[in-house]
Amino acid sequence: MSSVDEVLKYSRSLSEYIIRMRRDFHMHPELKWEERRTSSIVERELRGLGIEVIRVAETGVIGVLKGPGEGPVVGIRADMDALPIQEENDVPYRSRVPGKMHACGHDAHTAMLLGAAKVLAKVREKINGTVKLIFQPAEEGGLGAKAMVESGALDDVKAFFGIHVWSMLPAGVVGIKEGPMMAGADAFTIKVKGMGGHGAQPHEAVDPIPPACDIVNALHRIVSREVPALQPVVISVTMIKGGTTFNVIPEEVTLAGTIRTFDEGLRNKIIKRVKSIVKHYAEAWGCEGKFELSEEYVPPTVNDVRVTNIVRRVAGKLTKVVEGEPTMGAEDFAFYGRKAPAAFAVLGVRNETKGIVHPHHHPKFDVDEDVLWLGTALYVLVALDLLEEFRE
Ligand code: NI
Predict the structure, then answer these.
(1) Interval 337-349: pLDDT, tens
(2) Distance 265 CA to ligand 1 centre (A)
(3) pTM above 0.85, yes or no
């Protein structure tokens, strides 16, 4: 039996285990940096397979599986955190924790990677090198990947691979694409400070509201006037706060929003332009304008050509493969890609006959569990091929 057939057969036979683990994680969701239960189960399962375990980044777990043959170190990654959402699915495995839910599918990622640990442990004799199974915390706005990389425990990894289940693709279909896959993301806060006063005597006050409105409109003009027409950029102002009632001019207006790009040069150019707009539009009306990046930058996820080609070839042996569609959403998987060649693929989990149609982060999000074993097989086969490809 070829190793592909063997991996496929064993992964398929683990379907029940993967679903059982996924449901257990689903019933007990933990938010970013709180993944204590999840990580202790992951650690227990890995140790049960005789896999060495390293604990890093608070609740992160790395399983280190070394084969008998010489070879490089490669990393396959899952994230473990849930979201502050009240689940609305009426299923036996519904979240047992009020206000918390696995609404992005990270429960499935963790379960698929545990399945991969089982398969890799079974074919250990054929492994030339080391596979690091990366279970990271805090993907949802916690930059868990950055903490994992900064721990130093992945310094020897020569290539990374990650999977996200995907509600936009039919169950079992894999999406992959070389180059830009997920956008880089910034969050910003703008403050326009004036001087409060009576709504009936605006000339006695310094009203921050009109310049704040001008700033919002000017920011939207950046995309049409400053960005090449074929380059994807999103600037969204998502919050405006100012004032308390109809006859009082407020002291200050606060705006917040996000900037998404695939290109860091363009990102820097946009930030410079935003700063200038804020400063000068505010000053023109006697106000003070302040611009601040309020969250740490998440770089774009850009898929490496060599890793992508392996993923495409391997996935083609398992299932239908389509060209992945880049999104303006961000993923902290990008931090692995800054460390070594990396690729991020998506696995379709949408199934209309089962009513599994809701988007990620929706209170009725769910996944077609019957295809999760494919994710397990993909993790394993990509890891084995990466070991060959990235041999010195
Ligand atoms: Ni996610």
Answers:
(1) 999 999 999 999 9
(2) 26
(3) yes
